[in-house]
């Protein structure tokens, strides 16, 4: 397959074994994050009036699972040998884009942590603003989707590899 500038992308069958393993790990990671995101969305859309504390607990648990998936992704992303990590060479063509993606990811993790902490701090006697929580978490999930799309675009542009999770 040719890039628009005429250079050849590496064919998938010629990928080094380490890169192939990294690609599969990345896909598995994306599936785990997607599953946790779907679970969080399901909890968010459940009815809350009259059962605010049960609703809050379910959202908090689903966000904790999402946070665990993001933590695994962060650890893998920081390790050497990953498809994205290898693009962040000082002065390299993709350095600034990878750096922006990492900063964006770190901010999403901070927002996830802050929302979980906010939910934990809500006591039994307090009223829960479920509309505000829905808005916060929806923003986080939307940001995550956009982030994953930009990450997939970058890997495809640099390596010619589709890291998506399929149709």
What does this structure look like?
The structure is a single chain. This protein is mostly helical. The chain contains four helices and no strands. Helix 1 runs antiparallel to helix 2, helix 1 runs antiparallel to helix 4 and helix 2 (52-78) packs antiparallel against helix 3. The longest helix has 30 residues, at 130-159. The two termini are 21 Å apart. This is Hemerythrin-like domain-containing protein. Residues 1-26 are annotated as: Disordered.
TL;DR?
It contains 4 helices and no strands. The chain has 167 residues and is mainly alpha-helical. This is Hemerythrin-like domain-containing protein.
| Largest sheet properties | none
Radius of gyration: 19 Å
User: What is the global morphology?
Assistant: elongated
- Percent helix, as a range, is 55-70%
- Beta strand %: under 5%
Give the count of helical stretches.
Answer: 4
Mean pLDDT: 81
- What distance lies between the first and last C-alpha atoms, to the nearest angstrom? 21 Å
Query: Tally of extended strands?
Result: 0
Name the poorly predicted regions: 1-14
Estimated structural class: mainly alpha
Helix and strand element order:
HHHH
Protein name: Hemerythrin-like domain-containing protein
Secondary-structure map with pairings?
Blueprint: H1 17-45, H2 52-78, H3 95-121, H4 130-159
Helix pairs in contact: 1-2, 1-4, 2-3, 3-4
Task: Describe this protein with a few key phrases.
single chain, 167 residues, mainly alpha, elongated, disordered N terminus
């Amino acid at each position: 397959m040719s890039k628009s500038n005429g250079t050849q992308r590496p064919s998938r069958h010629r990928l080094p074994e380490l890169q192939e393993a990294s690609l599969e790990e990345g896909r598995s990671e994306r599936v785990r994050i997607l599953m946790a995101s779907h679970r969080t969305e399901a909890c968010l859309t459940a009815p809350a009036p009259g059962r605010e504390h049960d609703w809050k607990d379910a959202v908090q648990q689903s966000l904790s699972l999402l946070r665990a998936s993001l933590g695994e992704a962060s650890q893998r992303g920081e390790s050497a040998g990953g498809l994205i990590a290898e693009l962040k060479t000082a002065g390299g063509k993709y350095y600034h884009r990878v750096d922006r993606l990492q900063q964006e990811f770190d901010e999403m993790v901070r927002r996830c942590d802050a929302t979980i902490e906010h939910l934990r701090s809500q006591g039994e006697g307090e009223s829960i603003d479920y509309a505000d929580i829905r808005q916060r978490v929806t923003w986080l999930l939307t940001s995550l989707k956009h982030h994953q799309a930009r990450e997939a675009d970058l890997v495809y542009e640099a390596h010619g590899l589709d890291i998506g999770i399929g149709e």
